[in-house]
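Re: the multi-chain job from yesterday

Posting the exact lines I submitted so nobody has to dig through the queue logs.
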Amino acid sequence: MNRSALNIKLVRVIKKIFIYAALALAVFISLLPYYWMVSSALKTESNIFRLPIQWFPNPINWMSFVNGWQAQNFPRYFFNSFFVSITITVGTLVLASLAGYSLAKFRYPGRNILFIIILSTMMLPLEVTMVPLFLLIKNFEWQNTYQGLIVPFLVEGFGVFLMRQFILGIPRDLIEAARIDGASEMRIFVQIVMPLCTPALAALGVFTFREAWDMYIWPLIIVSKDDLRTVPLGISLFMGNYGTSWDQLMAIAVIGTLPMILLFFLLQRAFVQGITMTGIKG
Amino acid sequence: MWILSQKYSFIQRIHLPRFQKLTAHKQQMLFGYLILLPTLVIIFVFRFYPMLQAFYISTTDFDLIKSPEFVGLYNFMDLLKDPLFLNSARVSLTYVVFSVVPTWIISLGLAILFNRHIRFKNFIRSAVFMPVIMPAVVMALVWTFMYHQQGVVNVILGWLHLSPVPWLRSSSTALWAVILIGVWRASPYFMVIFLAGLQAIPEDFMDAAQIDGANSWQAFWYVTFPLLKPTTLLVMVMSIITAMKVFAVPLIMTNGGPANSTRVLPLFIYQTAFEFFDMGRASAMSVFLFAAVMIFTVFQIRIFSPGEDE
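And the result, structure tokens for all chains:
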């Protein structure tokens, strides 16, 4: 009797050890690239590949940040990335919530067909349409322009889908009541629907910003002028330059990740919610 | 929300004359169309039209200079005989299978752990989530550095008394190096979705199973897992589509090499179009990729199905 109780306890302890060991391993693997990026950025060039490996940079070399930042036109690339990402995010929030409201709360012929068309583009990878999209932008003469970087991504099927699902949950009575009170349709949208959508908007906003900040293939195709390069293009260009030192590359990598890290720590809930929402069902 | 609806509920009972309702209804319809319009225009012009256009271009010979010349199914027939294309298709398939299966296992495993009571849960969860935050290009850069012959990955292998691996330099290991990063990035992403699915399952169910004498493995297998089925299906479809689209990481890390061993299909499409300027051939490849993605998208739309109107 005593023995089996002891056994159960032992099994429980072993189980706990396994769980925490697995978690520790997961944390180690998840954070190692971050640690390595930051610590290498702070090493002097000669210490980067020194053996035995240097876990703590000594001496600390701050200059890699300055030199890396100045090696390319990074201030401009950061401005471009912020400008493009913010515009896309704002555009998505406005257009997706308008479209989602329309699809959720208005009745008109063709609504379901239109919704299915929008849904069908949701998972259409850019890799499939990049050639015709490039030709289209070329015809518009939008290569090397901000509108070429922004307009095709102002709204995506996913955002519309997400907002529609969320707005479906808002009681129709609220909207009807405001109508009878004499509020205009636009006012109902701005003053009643939008405020109730705050959690969905926060999640969609963070999600969209992250995707826009990450965008690589599209700028690579349509941008050739240095003035219009975004951060990912700048980083890959810097990486391709012969003889770029690793400490400067890691410094730029740190700076390029910083906006995402700030966003994550400021809006962690919305960040995670945005991903959870890619998993919601209709 | 319910307070507002309470406040306004009496208004509903007010009777409106019929004709007024009708015009109001038409006005509403118009407003509904109007606010959908900008989104429709963008999606038609920049998504739907290019999608149709891809089919047309795939039947032409087009190098951006001369005007496109119709060649029927030539591009498709020729691709099926092209060892480089077949190699790319094989690399993509390998990437998808071997990145997606470990991702499912790891993401579900982590979600199960986080669904329990553990210490420092918030810290650990944030830490494990960090790979999702790193931009793809930064990820490619940092991992290239870590995979260096004298890099940190080989140092860690040294601790385990394993000999160093020429990760990105050898055609037999480069694809595995890229796959490993894919798993690193995707696992926490899908963990979040699995965790949301797990948290939607009432705890009573598990308790009931345990009272009935099921051990925790049985409780998982017979109670949790069946209830998690919709989430699992969704994660499977989404992860497969994501893996099919991988592009930036192999482009930056290896540019498809060594010896074409990491030339996934999207990368090959990009190179055919924008390095060899063979738009017809690139579009034909897109159509193949499209067909593959479509199979899974149809599956996904059925999971996502539009749902009922209110």
